[in-house]
Amino acid sequence: MADEDPVDQKKYLEEACKPKCVKPLLAYQECVKRIQGDESGHKHCTGQYFDYWSCVDKCVAPKLFTELK
């Protein structure tokens, strides 16, 4: 077992947590649709993007730290 490369559990935990963060994901997707035609570059969905990943991270963190050695 010592010869095996460690596996990053965060990716697996993120996939498991994504379904719990549907509301922020939908808000982000709606924002992206809203600004698709913006040629000026002034409109963005950064806030919605970070809200989504914040939700995922809050779900992942307690599970991830119990698996770290």
From TrEMBL:
Keyword match Disulfide bond: yes
Intrachain S-S bonds: C17-C59, C31-C45
Segments forming domain Ubiquinol-cytochrome C reductase hinge: 8-69
Compartment(s) where it occurs, according to its Swiss-Prot or TrEMBL record: Mitochondrion inner membrane
Keyword annotations of the record: Disulfide bond, Electron transport, Membrane, Mitochondrion, Mitochondrion inner membrane, Respiratory chain, Transport
Topological type in the membrane: Peripheral membrane protein
Matching Pfam families: UCR_hinge (PF02320)
PANTHER family given in the database record: CYTOCHROME B-C1 COMPLEX SUBUNIT 6, MITOCHONDRIAL (PTHR15336:SF0), UBIQUINOL-CYTOCHROME C REDUCTASE COMPLEX 7.8 KDA PROTEIN (PTHR15336)
Entry function: Component of the ubiquinol-cytochrome c oxidoreductase, a multisubunit transmembrane complex that is part of the mitochondrial electron transport chain which drives oxidative phosphorylation.
Protein name, entry field: Cytochrome b-c1 complex subunit 6
Organism: Herrania umbratica
Lineage: Eukaryota, Viridiplantae, Streptophyta, Embryophyta, Tracheophyta
